[in-house]
Structure formats: C-alpha cells, structure tokens
C-alpha cells in the first residue's frame, strides 16, 4: 500500500479485491500496488449505413475479381460472407484452391505478391510450420493466402466495421444469395 492513498483508502481498495485482501492479511510486510481498473469504453462507434456497407462489400468483391486472372482457371465461385472481427464485422471473399500445394502454391503466392506490390499494397509473408502464408494490405483491404500440404486458401477482407443487427441479417442473406 502506498502512503499517498492513506490507510483508510487502502483498506477500501483491498476490500474490493478479496484475493489481495486475504494476501495482505497473511503478508502485511509485502507492499501491494493496485492499479485502477481500465475506464469503461466510450460510446460505441455508430453503425455504418446500409448503402456504405454494400459499397464496402462491392469493393472487396472487385479486389477479388481483379486477382481472379492470376488464379487457376475453371474455379467455382468463392464464398462471400460477413464474418465477426471482435465486436465488428468484415466482409470476406474466400476461395479454397484444393489440390494447389507445394511449388505451384508458392508460384501463385509469388505472382499475387508481385502484382499486389506493383499496385502499391504492402506485402509480407512467412512460413509457419508446414504452412506458407502471404499477407498483403493496402491500408483498407487485407488479403491472406495460406498454402498447406493439400490446398491453398485465399481470403480478401474488408476493414472491420460496426454493423447494426438488422442490417447484418439482411447483408448475410444478400451474401448467401449472391455467393
């Protein structure tokens, strides 16, 4: 306990923390410093409007479409969805490239990385065990390509935003319909 808080204030703080109160009773010779609890979060950011959310999804779709010529031919459509990112939501376009692994996957990652770098995206990657990961971002959208032993997955994601619950239901239905 610090002298600055005073013995009355110290006892009051310890009473709020049963673990430390019991510890202090057993070990009065040990100084205990209790930091204040973090302040409650400010009012949450307002939800993004439905039209802006649709534009966000469309921009994410366009980014995937612009990369499509670099992917293997004859692929089925990707999966489109709104995914949670903490308390926020991000629109994602996901594509599983089954059977694309090894040197073919590394070549794809190299092509994608070079093209995104040419477009001004920040590109980085690293092996993680048996998985090779390429990440890229343009300050707004993010891309991740993971290549493992049997497949490669590609994800283009919008920035996470606040989405109203009613809008989320509608947007998810639209993504299922369009995907």
* Structural class by SSE content: alpha+beta
Fraction of residues in H or I helices: 25-40%
What is the helix tally? 5
Order of helices and strands: HHHEEHEEEEH
Shape: elongated
Alpha carbon gyration radius: 25 Å
Multimerization state: single chain
* Percent of residues in beta strands: 25-35%
Characterize the largest beta sheet: strand count, sense, and whether it forms a barrel. Answer: 6 strands, antiparallel
Beginning-to-end CA distance, first to last residue: 60 Å
Describe the structure.
- This protein is of the alpha+beta class.
- Helices cover 39% and strands 25% of the residues.
- Strands 1-2-6-5-4-3 form a six-stranded antiparallel sheet.
- Strand 4 and strand 5 form a beta hairpin.
- Helix 1 packs across helix 2.
- The longest helix has 18 residues.
